[in-house]
Amino acid sequence: MTPDRRATKGCLAAEKVFKLPEFHDAHVVMIFLNTDTEIDTVAIALAAWAADKTVLVPRVNISERHMIALECKSLHAGLLPGSFGILEPANGEPWPVESIDMVVVPGLAFDRCGRRLGQGAGFYDRFLSTDGMRATTCGLAFAEQLVDDVPVTPHDWPMDIVVTDRDIFRPSRPASTDNDQQELDR
User: What is the distance between the alpha carbons of residues 17 and 20, in angstroms, rounded to a whole number?
Assistant: First the structure.
């Protein structure tokens, strides 16, 4: 995909996120800071700040296999490349997961059931399954990343919404996932 095409498709996806009632109603939104191959999340962060929302971004600790959410007040200061070369807040206190209203989640692929294929390290799955987490999960991807079926394991956390440059999916949970009980517990 050319950079221009990627930018156009990214804008279309971001506009769909802005229109979600969950985004509109959220006070605290966690947004991933994208790599060059992912949808650019700058517009989502800017829209959140313009709407007076608190914006959080993830910081990963590889040695502890742990991810936390830290407040981000600017995309121009206070960010440094983290463990995977992705910008992360240089400092700050972990934000309590109980107060996060929405988490925008990256992935290599998603399916219409909300299943997500991540990078394989499980950082988002562990974070989203943290006790007290009640945020709406929103997978964000290009339409080309939507596949018929994503294989899952018991620890994989499903998305409540999947947004692409073409569509918004609000999946119903398949009865066979091991996350059904976790969903009931949320």
Answer: 5
- Say which amino acid occupies 143: A
Cα separation, 29 vs 5, in Å, equals 27
Per-residue pLDDT tens over the stretch 7-64: 999 999 999 999 999 999 999 999 999 998 999 999 999 999 999 999 999 999 888 8
Cβ atoms of 97 and 126 within 8 Å: the answer is no
Give the other-Cβ count within 10 Å of 119's Cβ. Answer: 11
Could you read off the pLDDT of 81-120 as tens digits, one per residue? 988 889 999 888 999 999 999 999 999 999 999 999 888 7
Amino acid at residue number 91: N
The CATH number of 3-171 is: 3.40.50.10420
| Closest among 130, 132, 180, 186 to 152, alpha carbons compared | 180
